[in-house]
Amino acid sequence: xxxxxxxxxxxxxxxxxxxxxxxxxxxxxxxxAVMKERSDMLAGKVLAVLFFExxxxxxxxxxxxxxxxxGAVLSMGSVDASSIAKGETLADxxxxxxxxxxxxxxxxxxxxxxxxxxxxxxxxxxxxxxxAGHHPTQTLLDLYTIKRESKLEGVRIALAGDLKYGRTxxxxxxxxxxxxxxxxxxxxxxxxxxxxIIKDLEARGMKVRQTDSIDEAITEVDVLYVxxxxxxxxxxxxxxxxxxxxxxxxxELLENAKSHLKIMHPLPRVNEIDPLVDxxxxxxxFKQAFYGVPxxxxxxxxxxxxxx
Length: 308
Ligand code: NCD
Hints:
The protein is α/β, with parallel strands linked by helices. It has helices at residues 16-33, 57-68, 90-97, 113-118, 136-149, 167-176, 195-203, 214-217, 237-243, 251-254, 285-303; strands at residues 46-51, 72-75, 103-108, 125-130, 156-160, 182-186, 208-211, 223-226, 262-264.
């Protein structure tokens, strides 16, 4: 398996073998993420982080992953403080930054931005979210979480919330297709999974069910993956208000769930999960956010040649 210099753009580019290799590498690196071991595997390497949209976990877990492997981090800072504010194009920004760093992590509001950026970069570009498109590194940490906290092969999973604009669920579906997952999609009418994605999944031999009833879906699954309604992507604010509180996971709703059910959420949550759920054995979202560190360590180590 050879990941060195590979751009990480979409889960569609990954075979099952590739995903498994990344997850196994993450497992090996976890002792470094929890500071039981130290490493200078990426000493002398520089990671550039370019975020054109807000982020807490993705950005900070990439930064800590790089620092814990002994590398350095170079940040563009806020868009307002960079030359973007003067009208510089993404292509020009990438042409320059790729000459300063060994890998670029990019988050951008436009779908396809990371793939476009990769065409202007000699160093690997890692997609940290491109509009409503893809979020492959989130998917890898989601898979790692499912593997560690539930079971990946044949998992029964419900994806609930904003399936139209939520990029994390778009990427996750493609990856789950490799593991024989049984997927139920739960969303209000206006926020259904795009038809092209459903068609793609069915062509990959996946059974996909769609419903608007969380009550029923929650009784049958091993994992419930909840997403935030992506307010910033709605063309019409009135439409957002119509669906804004269409889903909330509460302790009462969980009374009918399987005892081993794990609830995941890429975070940030707004009001999709009642904070009272946090102290139940089902809550898995903060652990999930931690798993971003070993998984992003694995990706950085692999694309920069620290490991094979
Ligand atoms: C997600 C994103 O940016 O797509 N957040 C994350 O990366 N953990 C989910 C979201 O913003 O709702």
